Amino acid sequence: MYGEAEKLGRFPTEIDQATIVVIPKTQPPSRHCSAYRPISLLNIEIKVLSSTLASRLKEIMPTLVHPDQCGFMPTRSTRHCIRRLHLALAHRNTLSHAHLALLLLDFEKAFDTVDWSYLELVLQKNGLGPRFRGLVRLLYSKPTARVRVNGVVSDPFPIGRGTRQGCPLSPLLFALMIEPLAILLRGDPLIEGWSWPACAEDRVALYADDVLLYLSNPAKSGPRVLEILGLFAEASGLILNPAKSLLVPLHRSGDCVNWQRNIPVRRNSFKYLGMYISLLPELTWELNFTRLTRKIRSDLLHWRTLPLNLLGRIALYKMMILPRLLYLLQNFPHPIPRKWFGEMDSLVRQFIWSGARPRLALKTCQRDVYDGGLGMSNIHSYHLATQVLVINDWMGGGWTDPAYRLELQTMG
């Protein structure tokens, strides 16, 4: 079938057609399209081909994309971007330049607006062969989609731009497509980054389409950044969304934010990759753990009335609570008080026993099933495991990663 599709230059319509279902982002649902999250369902034939191409492309991605890009790259994740930011903020007073700023960029529907001719050019410039480019072109040759709402399916309509949602190849293609922007920002002499003594400069960090710029002299660097973004938008189709972008000036004297147009300005705290970042370290705990603990306490109290047995409650805790905790545990930059772990254990204990007196000690519940326990996760042990990840990066040559360059200098 794939050979025949290559000869024809496209898949049959019934194979190349996606079904889109929409999920409301807010309750109650809004009448605006932007208040719904589209989920695209692709046929298995499309996914098999795209998975094969993705597995091959993934092997050479580290040679095509700079380590500044952490999104969907092997051995890289959000924790590298967040750790890099925490270290930079903690040591910013060692910089010689008085005027510093962070610029967080957001693109309007980034994955849905990429121009396909630009994609073709990027693949060619990266040295990917004609067969590979032809197969990618096959995936993007006159695809169609239908929207399903309340069981009613719309008529098919053509898709003319953007990477396909639900396609395993799409994240890698997007990383390649945004890399030229990173190269322009990284190499422009009119843009000044954070230059550390005896260390490489911090200028740009990316997680897929989330771009963070470290700017010195933002009154000079900022306008040049916006100029480059305008040129990049003309070539790629990626348009800056000023309302969701953010400028964070880090100096107190003077005003260098008259160039930012409609980009909001925040001076104390902001959210980056799902975590609240505060310029005042004492507020970091309040913005992250205190807020999350309050939400978890509310959720557990609400779920206590659910008709679940003991194992069902443990499963609910592992699926709905533990992932939220793990993300903060691996990214929080300060020591976590042991008292907090005791507080969380108490909340979980009350939930799994429905507020009644526990019939098993929590440590017994946390043992492996084969050791007579219930396989319940130990939050403190998970926290220790997340800290070992950093040691694993060091042992694996992680000092070459931008997230650890400053750390290496600090530790001597």
TrEMBL record:
<protein>
    <recommendedName>
        <fullName>Reverse transcriptase domain-containing protein</fullName>
    </recommendedName>
</protein>
<dbReference type="InterPro" id="IPR043502">
    <property type="entry name" value="DNA/RNA_pol_sf"/>
</dbReference>
<dbReference type="Pfam" id="PF00078">
    <property type="entry name" value="RVT_1"/>
</dbReference>
<feature type="domain" description="Reverse transcriptase">
    <location>
        <begin position="4"/>
        <end position="277"/>
    </location>
</feature>
<dbReference type="InterPro" id="IPR000477">
    <property type="entry name" value="RT_dom"/>
</dbReference>
